[in-house]
Amino acid sequence: MTKDGAEAGTRTEDGVPRRLPRVRGFAEWPAEGSPREEGKALRKRVPRSAHATLDLDASRPGAVDAVEESSRGRLPELTPLRVGRMAATPFAFLRGAAGLMAYDLARTPMTRIRAQICGDAHAANFGLYGDARGGLVIDLNDFDETVLGPWEWDLKRLTTSLVLAGRAAGADEDRCRKAAYDAVGAYRRTMRLLAKLPVLDAWNAIADEELVSHTDAHDLLGTLERVSEKARHNTSGRFAAKSTQPTEDGGRRFVDAPPVLRRVPDAEAAAVAASLEEYVGTLPEDRLPLLARHAVHDVAFRVVGTGSVGTRSYVVLLLDHRGEPLVLQVKEARASALVPHLVTAGFEASAAEHEGRRVVRGQKRMQVVSDTLLGWTTVDGRPFQVRQFRNRKGSVDPAALAADQMDDYGRMTGALLARAHSHSVDPRLIAGYCGKSEELDEAMAAFAVAYADRTEADHSDLVTAVREGRIAAETGV
After folding, report:
1. Alpha-carbon distance values, 52 to 64, 108, 441 (Å)
2. Element (H, E) at 101
């Protein structure tokens, strides 16, 4: 009640209080408490300097055990390919070891503030993609592991990956550490900016054309322009032109290109095609006329990614009345590798009702603009996510950046991560904790360097196991 006796949520008209009911899902007025002060208070329980801590558990799984555990349930014939890709570099190892890092992060200091996190926010999981009007957006673009969890886990994975990518690119240690340091600083400053803005402005903030200036990433301009130009041509049409051939009835079919692309038996193709009926039911109704003007022509299996290798992933060829292609990716959605480690850390976490739905909903919570055809389905009892394939996607390879671009890339990705987190947690809360000083930047940069060293040791253990024949690896593809 307010002091004049009106219910919370009232407004006045000519000085007379108007009584309005409290509405579920909306904030109360006047607001009680201060999220910023609540965040500041958390510093007493978890000092920002504590985020430098890395105390490895004595029972921590070895690199080979972790890789073998994460391969359970994958297609066994593709496991050697996954191992080979992870064995290529320490940065590649990190990309495939989200579960192992989550094991370690569960034993680090945490504020207990939960957000929708990517779960695998390494530096190569940011990129360009097309919006509904053909424009390009840059954002996080991989959500296989997304879940409600500690915001710090995403930031520590990003900073560690920047150190490893910098080392792979030949940057010296000072530049690698600075990339991590600058990523945290950009995250912190962006969260403070979002906390000050009106909520609607904050929700839609950090548009692509403003991002370079906001993060002072001007050295990246040339790289981003080249990636953007390539992304504009990375479409379903171009993929179909290279990967399909005409059929006698005027349609098209996929052509084998092993080991990355292969045709599948008729029964398997039919099961994937039939699953699209469930998928259509997960889309907003205004998307249905678009798909109704396309016919399903073929299905093929396509190997994807580093961490995703061994999961079931299909491409489905659709053609419109003019024979123009639209390619959908139907990708298996496994349980997030973070879930058991969240439980260890004392968070409530349980298996999702449908893993494809978890991925899609997490992606929509974190991105400003998402693929208009995102949905989910089930094939032979397994959950899958569905999305457009080659939707003008482009990516920066952080391990190939010039040394003087690493800190720019760190600032850009740190800002993007802050904006993504702010969709599910009040930015005032995290901004209050992070504060104005560089204490958090220093601590997380120190953690990133230490964990990068640990990852290099894990990678070395895996390479040794491959060389000694203790685990099979296939390279060169």
Report:
1. 26, 9, 10
2. helix 98-105
Q: Residue length, the chain?
A: 477
pTM higher than 0.85: yes
**H helices within 10-97, ranges in order?**
35-45, 63-70, 79-86, 90-95
Q: Rounding to the nearest 10 degrees, give the CA dihedral for residues 34, 36, 37, 38.
A: 80
pLDDT in tens, the chain (477 residues): 344 444 444 455 566 667 888 899 898 877 888 999 999 999 999 999 999 999 998 999 999 999 999 999 999 999 999 999 999 999 999 999 999 999 999 999 999 999 999 999 999 999 888 887 778 888 999 999 999 999 999 999 999 999 999 999 999 999 999 999 999 999 999 999 999 999 998 988 865 557 777 788 888 888 888 999 988 888 888 999 999 999 999 999 999 998 899 999 999 999 999 999 999 999 999 999 999 999 999 999 998 877 788 899 999 999 999 999 999 999 999 999 999 999 999 998 878 899 999 999 999 999 988 999 999 999 999 999 999 998 888 889 999 999 999 999 999 999 999 999 999 999 999 999 999 999 999 999 999 999 999 999 999 999 999 999 999 998 765
Pair of tokens at residue 253? 């079919």
Contact 342, 106 (CB under 8 A): yes
Token readout for 382 is 């397994």
Q: Which amino acid is at 1?
A: M
The Cα 211–Cα 313 span in angstroms is: 33
